[in-house]
Design a protein that fits this description.
The chain is 41% helix and 25% strand. By secondary structure, the protein is an alpha/beta fold. It folds into three domains: 66 residues, no CATH class; 57 residues, no CATH class; 102 residues, Metalloproteases ("zincins"), catalytic domain (Zincin-like). It has a four-stranded mixed β-sheet with strand order 1-2-4-3, covered by helices on one side. The protein has a four-stranded mixed β-sheet with strand order 5-6-8-7. The chain is globular, with a radius of gyration of 23 Å. The chain starts with a strand and ends with a helix.
């Protein structure tokens, strides 16, 4: 890794050789700055290019941070804090000689048990998989209970509930009366889950976002705008 100092700001960036690059180019993604170098050009040339364009890099890096919610991509290592039901809890990864590997929530921590001897990269990859499976299991249980509760409260019945891996939606419903929920909602506060569930159940009665629709939502969740705003502000971190 290389470091670019601009005033009091230090930006870490990565240099790499690309067979596709026709000129030195800078990309910023997931809070990482990467500099592609065409074959045949020297590292010193690329470093000079970065230095000459440091103001442009700083401007676009800061813009990227503001648009991404100013959070770092999850690393899935011990000590990192992860969302669960609206609060952040420390992750603790422990090695076990048992044949099954799993996660659980205990003592205000998210515990993950992995086999011994893994490289840091492989341990992180496995921890991510185990945690996501645990989140899904929690979503299946807890969100199902919430949907049943609000279905009775709103007097709006549904056909089936499906917990899905939706990339761009928190929830959806079908003309068959099915409710689909993104498993990542389990990371959000209980009231956010309630908002998404009430929103989708109400859509089974009102197909659009009419005044009657929002009146119904507000009737059962008066502060729904607060939780809708929370989701808009934190959604990218939940999806990261």
């Amino acid at each position: 890794m290389e470091y670019l100092k601009i005033g009091n700001t230090v930006i870490e960036y990565e240099l790499y050789t690309s067979t596709k690059a026709k000129k030195v180019s800078v990309t910023i993604k997931n809070q990482r700055v990467r500099v592609a170098i065409p074959m045949g050009l020297s590292l010193d040339y690329a470093k000079n290019f970065v230095e000459e364009n440091k103001e442009w890099i700083l401007t676009h890096f800061q813009k990227h941070l503001s648009q991404s919610g100013n959070f770092s991509p999850k690393k899935y290592v011990s000590g990192e804090k992860l969302f669960y039901r609206g609060r952040k809890y420390p992750l603790l990864i422990e090695e076990t000689s048992e044949s099954n590997y799993y996660a659980l929530f205990i003592g205000s921590r998210i515990m993950v048990y992995v086999p011994p001897g893994l490289s840091p990269e492989n341990q992180s990859t496995l921890a991510k998989k185990i945690i996501e499976e645990w989140y899904r299991g929690q979503a299946e249980k807890l969100l199902s209970e919430q949907v049943s509760y609000y279905s009775k409260l709103l007097a709006i019945s549904f056909n089936k509930l499906k917990i899905k891996d939706q990339k761009t939606r928190w929830g959806s419903c079908s003309n068959k009366g099915n409710i689909n929920l993104n498993w990542r909602i389990i990371m959000a506060p209980n009231q956010v889950a309630a908002y998404v569930i009430i929103h989708e159940l109400t859509h089974l009665k009102y197909l659009n976002h009419s005044k009657d629709f929002w009146k119904k939502v507000e009737q059962y969740l008066p502060d729904y705008k607060k939780w809708k705003k929370w989701l808009a502000g934190n959604g990218k971190e939940l999806s990261n």
